[in-house]
From TrEMBL:
The UniProt record lists the keyword Transferase: yes
Essential cofactor(s): pyridoxal 5'-phosphate
Protein name: Aminotransferase class V domain-containing protein
Record GO terms (molecular function): transaminase activity
UniProt xrefs under InterPro entries: Aminotrans_V_dom, PyrdxlP-dep_Trfase, PyrdxlP-dep_Trfase_major
Top-rank taxon: Eukaryota
Domain annotation Aminotransferase class V: ranges: 16-183
PANTHER family to which the protein is assigned, alphabetical: 2-AMINOETHYLPHOSPHONATE--PYRUVATE TRANSAMINASE (PTHR42778:SF1)
Keyword check for Transport: no
Origin species: Timema shepardi
Keywords for the protein's UniProt record, in alphabetical order: Aminotransferase, Pyridoxal phosphate, Transferase
Length: 206
């Protein structure tokens, strides 16, 4: 594991180091947090990296729906609230990018998280903070995040080739055994979520 940043509770959160790119960690979380049966992901998209999550879901055979916003606008919490309030809007995971590298737009992920947990309390809330973690303030607990991913070589200015996941222990344990759809032709895809799945099981058995 890697050390948690100041202000993140070691009682409620843990961290997992992954040898791979930032996208590698995004895929690991999307696969691990998606149940084998009945998964449905809501992607809040306002740029290239949100769209990349859709590609990952499609490649991994994870059903996903996109709620799209203009690239020069934030993901609007009120719009998210209205969407989650519509009949049939039931999701196992809601995912968003904190800072869209393609535009520099910072999304209000804490406010979005509170909306998600109010209207879809059983959904996993996942934030890609690849280009913001360590530079832009982010209240992980106050924003009700279940999973956050980032990379060593972005704002932390570490060595390239490593990504990490900050995970709610409750969400990580609940996801135990959900590694899915790596595919024989894409075996490297499995490594990240197998690492996360193994760590989830170690928490259960501790």
């Amino acid at each position: 594991t890697v050390c948690l940043s100041p202000g993140i509770s070691h009682e409620e959160y843990t961290s997992v180091l992954l040898q791979g790119s930032g996208t590698f960690s995004v895929e690991a979380v999307l696969q691990l947090s998606s149940p084998r049966n009945g998964a449905k992901v809501l992607l809040l998209v306002n740029g290239a990296y949100g769209n990349r999550m859709k590609v990952i879901c499609d490649t991994s055979c994870i059903p996903a729906e996109v709620l799209e916003f203009p690239e020069n606008n934030i993901v609007d919490p009120d719009t998210v609230s209205r969407h989650l309030s519509t009949p049939g809007a039931e999701y196992t995971t809601v995912a968003v990018v904190h800072c869209e590298t393609s535009s520099g737009v910072i999304n209000p992920v804490e406010e979005i998280g509170r909306v998600v947990k109010r209207l879809a309390p059983d959904a996993i809330y996942f934030v890609d903070a690849m280009s913001s973690f360590g530079a832009v303030p982010l209240d992980v607990k106050g924003g009700r995040l279940d999973f956050l991913v980032s990379s060593a070589n972005k704002c932390l200015q570490g060595v390239p080739g490593f990504a990490f996941v900050i995970a709610s222990k409750v969400a990580l344990v609940a996801s135990k055994g959900e590694e899915i759809n790596g595919g024989v032709t894409n075996v490297w895809h499995l490594t990240g979520n197998v690492n996360l799945g193994w760590y989830a099981r170690t928490l259960v058995n501790a």
